[in-house]
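In practice, a research group might receive sequence data for several interacting partners and want a quick structural hypothesis before committing to experiments. The following worked case mirrors that situation: the sequences arrive first, and a predicted assembly follows.
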Amino acid sequence: MELQPLVSDLTSAPGPPRLRSLFRRREAPGTTRVHPHGLIQVPQQSQGDAWALGLRRNFPILARQIAGRRIVYLDSAATSQKPDAVIDAICEYYRSCNANIHRSVYTLAEEATTGFEGARSRIARFVGGTPDTTIFTRNATEAINLVAYAWGRQNVREREVVLVTKMEHHSNLVPWQLLCQETGAELRYVDVTEDGLLRLDDLDAELSTGRVRLAAVAHVSNVLGTINPVAEIVRRIHAAGAIALVDGSQAVPHLPVDIGQIDADFYAWTGHKALGPTGIGVLHGRRELLENMGPFLAGGDMISTVDLQASTWNALPWKYEAGTSMIAEATGLGAAVDYLAALGMSQVRGHELALTRQALGRLAEVPGLTVLGPARTDDRAGVISFTIDGAHPHDVAEVLNRTNVCVRAGHHCAQPLMRHLGLSATTRVSFGPYNATDDIDALMAGLQDVTALLQQWGSLQTHSELAEHGRHPRNFGDLANPDLAGQASVELCGDDLGVHLRVTDGRVAAIRFHGHGCALAISAASYASGQYLGLPLTDISSLTAGWALGLLPVPVQPIREPCAVLHLHTVLSALAALSRHK
Ligand SMILES: Cc1ncc(COP(=O)(O)O)c(C=O)c1O
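A structural hypothesis for the assembly, expressed as tokens:
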């Protein structure tokens, strides 16, 4: 069989021969080729379902069945699935050339180094960057922290402004909060329109103060799906004399990205959302800035010379890569970008946009369902967050899971955005290149189950007694002039309960819960409320989560335990308020 390069510029892919062979084969579309670890179907190069369904065969996890049903994976914004090419590249590295890099002269080590640095070159090229300004980190979060520490601590001063937007992931917020707390700089936010777009007039107003030292913006929102006009935003930031950081975590896996054209000073992204493994992220930086910044982490590999009292730093990019690098992970990410490059990012974008358009059209038909984010589909990546009147996102996700439809429910690590939207959580569907119409069909069928179950709210619980508590929660409401009041929430999903207690002779004489939560949080509070009546406050303070879980007639999934024990935290917070007042 005549083998052609997977993508033309990979014919010179560095690395040991067996690894190289993974990158080199390419057959005519639609043919099946033999892979060292099995069969890979090369999909037809046409847009649409046939393309995605062909490609799905490259993702072994998508062949798995749970309870006799296939997996409908609609959570690629959280992490993507991995093709055989990536899994095999990692296995091949460990099987055939595992050795530490940059230090030994023997053949294995040379192969490992060549494979690692070759992956860096291809990863840089994939987004239009250069290898020496392409730094490997553990993930996007670490890449942004690197900038906040190494550049930020050296350059940001009191009373200057670090500007972010209200649609940022916590990864692009919390590092700047810490920087501002340390330096006395001010953290300010660019607002988001009702349509889920950045308010560029707000950006201009902030920039016009002359105080902005750095502005950090998501390329694509992980909640709203908004594709921000980052090249234009960076142009405005530079015109105001500030430094620009773009968080490309949700962009690189789904859009053709050219960091040269965007021209940000720093561009960060994460490997595991881009078909690569976990444990590897990327920071592209402007050379002058990277050269002038001090190091981030210190230790082996990042030094040039070490004396008893002082050291000098290695050249770029290794100055920012302390300790043994993620060799297998970089190799895997190299294979991932090869795979994406072979698909063609325009093709990936076109396919995901078509799916998004189709899904938006069909979701619009679900009663009570509200989609967040841009009205114009072209402004969106393949991320759709929605709410359904009367249904908590956690419950929606749990019902969908009954037919193996995997979606994310929660605040998506974007609590300031959630607060801005007046929501505690949403359900989020997100696409990868392996999704097709059959996935949207499965989602829609699952949502029909949700709406059917909603008609008898509370029966989202499988156990009939619990369901009854969900339908008609006991001891819910307010007490006039309560003796004690408490409140607690579940950070993960936005459940938020309050409690009022009437206390007589040191015992609970009446209890009322209020607030909002998923079916489990409400049913469990109702179920437990009778147990609190008559209990001495001194006994309540020693109650544990195990006690609260033990009250329930059914076991609870570990991920949902915080919902099931929320009532106890609420009551304990009321007691804590009492002890503070003593
Ligand atoms: C927009 C955005 N930025 C940053 C991150 C953080 O990625 P990681 O956890 O891999 O660092 C995420 C992850 O969800 C994200 O969606």
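Before designing any experiment, note the following. The CA atoms of residues 344 and 449 lie 37 Å apart. The pocket of pyridoxal-5'-phosphate is lined by residues 139-141, 169, 171-172, 218, 222, 247, 249-250, 270, 272, 281, 413 (CB under 6 Å).
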